[in-house]
Automatic annotation (TrEMBL):
One of its GO terms (molecular function) is sequence-specific DNA binding. InterPro entries: AraC_XylS_family_regulators (IPR050204), DUF6597 (IPR046532), Homeodomain-like_sf (IPR009057), HTH_AraC (IPR018060). SUPFAM superfamilies: Homeodomain-like. SMART domains: HTH_ARAC (SM00342). Keywords: DNA-binding, Transcription, Transcription regulation. Coiled coil: none annotated. This is AraC-type DNA-binding protein. The lineage of its organism: Bacteria, Pseudomonadati, Bacteroidota, Flavobacteriia, Flavobacteriales. It comes from the Bacteria.
């Protein structure tokens, strides 16, 4: 399985984490999608080979992944795709559809962007080089940003602060810094994203802890867990099972045999 990723243009970087792609053939074993954590990120997949399966049902050749609960995602056959990983909460700047409507759905590119989406898919299908595909994506999402960019930046600022300071941030203090009441802040946050700031803080802590465990294999795992704000190891184990349906040891073992943008190389 060949995996790689690339950053978008500077204009899009605050909103899109990366473009990533994978390719394999039928001579390789089927690859399991790495368990997706229920957060506020969105991935858009465009398949040039076999699409993914969710609970043994094939998805469309272009679709989003916006998980809020565990889903059994697998692959088989010829795998050839490019995907767009949006930052937490950033997808709202590229579509008029309310973010809450996308939870646990596999909406197609056509459903999201109609004829514009169809034209993009057609161009990507007829472009063989990754450099040209990246250019097409940069152009497409730059235009969408100009068209749909939200003017309320408070939620963007709040989400970045919580994600980057998940171990120390206090929601009531953050709302004071934003010059809004805590109740109003929590209501607006939930209205936009489907859960409250505290829930997002917990998810952010878990994602960051998981990433540390993956990329710091030689460090003491218990120390990493405690440094991330967990009471003890059992606290983290319980959260890991709740979000991924796996124990920490099981999910770490999945790392080398699963598909996820965490594990790609930069090109």
């Amino acid at each position: 399985m060949q995996l790689a990723h690339h950053k978008p243009t500077a204009t899009l970087l605050p909103y899109i984490n990366r473009y990533y792609w994978g390719k394999s053939n039928t001579n390789e074993d089927s690859i399991t999608m790495f368990p997706l954590v229920a957060g506020t990120g969105v991935d858009v997949y465009i398949h040039f080979g076999t699409s993914f399966y969710v609970d043994n049902q094939a998805l469309s050749t272009s679709h989003i992944l916006c998980p809020r609960q565990h889903a059994n995602i697998t692959t088989s056959g010829d795998i050839d795709f490019i995907a767009i990983r949006f930052n937490h909460g950033a997808f709202r700047h590229f579509s008029p559809i309310n973010f809450n409507e996308l939870h646990n759905s596999y909406v197609t590119v056509h459903d999201l962007w109609k004829e514009e989406g169809d034209i993009l898919i057609d161009k990507l299908y007829h472009t063989s080089t990754i450099e040209n595909r990246i250019q097409l994506l940069d152009e497409f999402f730059t235009l969408l940003l100009l068209k749909h960019q939200c003017t309320n930046t408070i939620l963007d600022q709040a989400m970045r602060t919580i994600y980057q300071n998940h171990s120390t941030v206090c929601i009531s203090e953050l709302s004071q810094q934003l010059n809004i009441s805590t109740r109003h802040f929590e209501r607006k946050f939930k209205q936009e994203f489907g859960f409250n700031p505290k829930n997002f803080q917990v998810v952010s802590r878990f994602e960051n802890t998981l990433r540390k465990l993956f990329f710091s294999p030689n460090k003491d795992q218990l120390s990493l867990i405690l440094d991330s704000g967990y009471y003890d190891q059992s606290h983290f184990i319980k959260e890991c099972k709740a979000y991924t349906n796996y124990s920490p040891s099981e999910i770490i073992n999945l790392k080398d045999n699963s598909l996820h943008f965490y594990f790609t190389k930069t090109v």
